Q: What sequence folds into this?
């Protein structure tokens, strides 16, 4: 698997480099507008750049997997003496690596802009609030990889039946939509109702002794969000993890044993 | 080398070698090229060369020394026989061909003498 | 003699037709076998199944005694009829890739072959002509010390000089402990390389045997025999 990862990285680093360059250039462009435009606008634009890059990256990472199934390069990839999980794993890991790098850079710029919003950082420090970037990063990353896995699964299932690229992408998209709907239904209708244990991912940390927001004027959901963090149903999280594992195993099996190129 | 692919290639290889023995391009006792070498030279399957060599050995035209390779026979009598055998074959083919065209024995002898005298 | 490939009752069904129809084929070690047939005969289907990128519907195919899987892929060197190298690669990347991915890859042999084929390591794969591409792919494939080589139309669309080199490389690669399956339309150019030939039509083997024996028996070249079988 490591070798596969190595070659995916070698193969893609140039295009990826261009993506990174794009992030940097766009953000530098924003920096040049710092004294002309509203700081809040800059923050929003910076975050928007991050999101756009995220979407581009997603499409890119989808192709990492789809190309081997629909293009001639599959003749090479799938005649390698590699297990299905090895090929799949390498795609996911490379995707994760690219995502982390791209997001860190994009986020760094956004944070830079945020700090300039009326001395954002100072206000936080004064209120004794720390932003737990690591938790936020983990949340983003796991969502990204989770979605990617579901998409990979949809693509591999579609490929069993459809050999044409365009039809395949269309059908995969439909399957993906169906899976997500079903997942959602199971999540909200069944799991949420049955299991109630919640745990929180803190996105704000509070220093001891400081006066936290207990203002009853504020919206209680928002308060809860800030004070406690993002609520996650424990059972739901376990459900998502299981789904990920199931999709991983199924996709590995499909690409190793069932694919007809 | 040009091969007539209607006839087994190994036989053609054998004939090729036999001819060269008769004309002394390949001297008696000389070492034959290795199977691989000849295969590459002639652009044929090594197994085909192997078979040709084996047949040559069977006919005592060549013999192999373990680890050293294959050598053409030193037996002069054998080589003379080869020559007359090949000549025989040519003649047989010729006679067959001519008969097919409708030539009688006398006509064949006649035309043959004339041709040969013309050559001298 | 040990068979490196044994296919019994191999069938591949699609919605409305059968790609392979109870095909039986056995290939011993140390042979070059020509798999001959027109387009649509099941040639490519069989090849792909042997290479492990297509699944058979029923029947059995064993390579070195094993079902298709990671092991068979490690002992089968497949040369497809398409450009399969990753587009970003230069020739030297392709060589390193093969070295990393296949344990039986002989880097030195590959470099020798590249020199023999007049290929420059630093060329980008996408800039190669069809002939050069074929020579490169063949060099990579033959540099592996595989048990079964499968060459799908190695001479297709290739100029005569390149063809010479390709044939030479194939002959040079003949070993007792490996076999080769070669599919081709250009029977004439390559028939002298075959030990055995198998004619495939409509998913079945309709005629097979030793090339030389067939020449004796039928009094024809394999090329002529091909035309006769598939008229």
A:
């Amino acid at each position: 698997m490591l070798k596969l990862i190595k070659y995916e990285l070698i193969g893609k680093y140039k295009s990826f480099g261009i993506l990174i360059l794009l992030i940097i250039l766009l953000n530098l462009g924003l920096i040049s507008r710092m004294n002309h435009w509203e700081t809040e606008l800059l923050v929003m634009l910076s975050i928007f750049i991050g999101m756009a890059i995220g979407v581009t990256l997603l499409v890119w990472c989808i192709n990492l997997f789809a190309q081997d199934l629909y293009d001639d390069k599959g003749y090479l990839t799938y005649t390698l003496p590699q297990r299905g999980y090895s090929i799949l794993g390498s795609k996911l890991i490379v995707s994760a690596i690219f995502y982390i790098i791209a997001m860190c850079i994009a986020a760094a710029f956004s944070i830079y802009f945020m700090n300039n919003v009326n001395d954002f950082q100072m206000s936080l420090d004064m209120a004794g609030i720390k932003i737990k970037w690591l938790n936020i990063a983990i949340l983003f990353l796991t969502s990204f990889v989770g979605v990617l896995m579901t998409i990979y699964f949809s693509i591999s299932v579609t490929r069993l039946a459809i050999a044409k690229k365009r039809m395949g992408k269309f059908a995969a998209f439909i399957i993906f939509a169906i899976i997500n709907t079903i997942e959602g239904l199971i999540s909200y209708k069944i799991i949420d109702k049955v299991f109630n244990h919640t745990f929180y991912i803190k996105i704000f940390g509070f220093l001891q002794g400081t006066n936290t927001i207990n203002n009853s004027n504020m919206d209680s959901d928002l308060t809860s969000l800030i004070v406690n963090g993002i609520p996650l149903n424990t059972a739901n999280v376990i459900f998502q993890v299981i789904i990920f594992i199931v999709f991983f195993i199924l996709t590995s099996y499909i690409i190793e044993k069932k694919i007809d190129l | 080398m040009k091969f007539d692919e209607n006839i087994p290639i190994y036989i053609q290889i054998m004939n090729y070698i036999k001819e060269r023995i008769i004309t002394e391009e390949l001297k008696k006792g000389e070492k034959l090229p290795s199977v691989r070498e000849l295969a590459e030279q002639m652009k044929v399957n090594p197994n085909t060369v192997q078979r040709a060599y084996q047949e040559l050995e069977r006919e005592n035209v060549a013999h192999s020394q373990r680890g050293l390779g294959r050598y053409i026979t030193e037996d002069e009598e054998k080589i003379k026989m080869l020559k007359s055998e090949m000549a025989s074959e040519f003649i047989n083919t010729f006679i067959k061909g001519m008969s097919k065209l409708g030539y009688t024995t006398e006509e064949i002898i006649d035309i043959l003498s004339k041709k040969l005298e013309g050559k001298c | 003699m040990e068979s490196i490939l044994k296919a019994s009752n191999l069938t591949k069904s699609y919605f409305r037709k059968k790609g392979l129809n109870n095909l039986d084929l056995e290939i011993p070690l140390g042979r070059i076998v020509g798999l001959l047939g027109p387009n649509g005969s099941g040639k490519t289907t069989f090849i792909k199944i042997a290479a492990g990128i297509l699944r058979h519907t029923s029947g059995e195919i064993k390579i070195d005694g094993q079902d298709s899987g990671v092991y068979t892929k490690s002992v089968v060197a497949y040369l497809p009829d398409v450009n399969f190298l990753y587009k970003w690669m230069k020739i030297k990347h392709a060589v390193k890739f093969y070295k990393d991915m296949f344990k039986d890859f002989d880097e030195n042999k590959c470099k020798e072959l590249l020199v023999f084929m007049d290929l420059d390591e630093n060329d980008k794969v996408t800039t190669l002509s069809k002939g050069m591409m074929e020579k490169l792919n063949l060099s990579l494939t033959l540099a592996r010390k595989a048990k079964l080589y499968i060459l799908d139309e190695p001479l297709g669309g290739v100029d005569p000089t390149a063809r010479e080199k390709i044939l030479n490389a194939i002959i040079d690669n003949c070993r007792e402990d490996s076999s080769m399956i070669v599919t081709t339309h250009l029977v004439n150019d390559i028939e002298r390389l075959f030990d055995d030939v198998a004619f495939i039509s409509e998913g079945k083997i309709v005629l097979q045997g030793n090339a030389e024996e067939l020449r004796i028996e039928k009094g024809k070249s394999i090329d002529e025999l091909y035309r006769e079988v598939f008229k």
Observations:
- Chains B and A do not touch (no CB pair under 8 Å).
- The mean pLDDT of chain B is 88.
